[in-house]
Amino acid sequence: MKIGLLGFGVVGRGVYDITSELDNMQVAKVVCLEDVSLPDAEVTRDIQSVLDDPTIDTVVEAMGGVGAAYKFVRAAIEAGKNIVTSNKALVCSFYDELLPLAQSKGVQFRCTAAVGGGIGWLSELERSRRVQPIMQVGGIMNGTCNYILDSMTRLGLGYDEALKQAQSLGYAEAKPATDVEGIDTWHKVILSSNIAFGVSLDTTTVPVAGISAITAEDVAAFNARGYICKLISTGKRKDGKYSAYVQPTLVKPGQPEAAVPSNYNLITLVGKYSGRMSFFGQGAGRYPTAYNVVQDCADVIAGKGFYCEYGPKVAAVNDDKMTYYVRGDRDAWLSEHTADTWGEAVITKPVSVSDMHAWLKTHPGAFIAALSDDAL
Ligand code: HSE
Question: What is the pTM assigned to this prediction?
């Protein structure tokens, strides 16, 4: 396999390093803006030279973002190149366009590193769905958020200090808001649900609450009551209906999610025959992520394409009822739905996920966390 590599940042450099040790694939050209010189690959700023090169069969996109990356990936599919990408924002945002295009052009499209970094989550989901219906997917999918929450809970770090550390370790996205507002997790659970259930979720029906408003006082209140806060994603299918959402969730020490340290992810599926199966590993970082990009290249060599057929558009209906920790303006709705108070915050009566998230949208500085006996 001859690879045209787009981007030479955290992941791109890792892909170059790992493929350098393999005999069956080679990075032939690198398209990037950085001033690098490589002994065995041409470095260029000109994507067209990759598209026009008939010896390059596969484009690995490791640029990030959805502007230039979208343009280049689309052009590469049109030019008949296989695509391997770790870019969840790209795949999630252009799912309805890029997947059918790749299938109609007969090129392979893989994105295993897009969810779970180094964990073979999407490739295992692909295997699992071959022999059983999947009812549920989700869990801890963002290394940066887990790093911040874990550092605040176990080490007593402040939010800003923990975020800075995650950035310096290369876990955070270029715009950290993407991580801490839950958008990265949102992309990942939508993509996982699409593959697990063989659908294309209407992204406007999937609500997300992030962790950027959490304070040391919130964490102290959780610690005092034996809870640990994690950012948890959920995608479910039941009786032909779908639900999907992302929200901070308070788990008890006995739950598997509670024990997930540092930048690790714990991603779970619930299948008809397998029951619950969880996948644990490095969810971010150069080599873990690059490892799965290179695994996808090996799968492309073996003739593997996307994980499922492109499926129908469906809306998520989030009518599950939960109790929530809410710190924010105690307006009429919140007062009416209050069951208890924890200092300045309230614990709600059971309310639907969609009602709670609709309230949060009109109270942007507030912090919410669902209380759960079963985090997924
Ligand atoms: N920013 C992401 C994370 C990188 O922290 O998990 C991996 O997708």
Answer: 0.96
